[in-house]
Write a structure and sequence with these properties.
8 helices
Amino acid sequence: MLKKFIKRFLPDHHKIKKQKALKIFGSLLHDPNLWHLNRRSASGAFGLGLFFAFWPVPFQMWLSAGAAIPLRVNLPLSVATVWITNPFTMPPIFYGAYLVGATILGTDTQAFHFQLSWDWVVQSLETIGPAFLLGCGVCSIVFGLAGFLGLNYIWRWSVVKAWQVRQAKYAAKQAKLKQP
């Protein structure tokens, strides 16, 4: 079942609650709904994590954790899902977001060469910034919604499939008992 698969990869909630960095959330972390793993909390957390994964900010995990608390979705899963955009995947994902934004705005894509300077950052925000930020926003909404609906569907499908297998085993057992 999907629940068992996801639980294998999530850390223990007692270890997470002891993290010093999470002390800012205080007693809000004691809500049991943040740690339960069911269809609603898992699909909401997955969608939320994907939503914040496309935000071009260095504190995506904090945003995801902060939003998971009032939405009462699984906190560890929402924070872990943000790591889809990690240092290795971030360049192609954000370049794809830039292409989406440029397509929506109808602008030509511009070649840019990275320089580690403040002038380059300001100049890039003026030239490619609008397309990049629009693309990030669109991808954030689309992938967040797709992740929510997709995991919701997969979870439900796995429960129905497990129920059908269990029902078939029961029917086979009953048929064996009725044979003389």
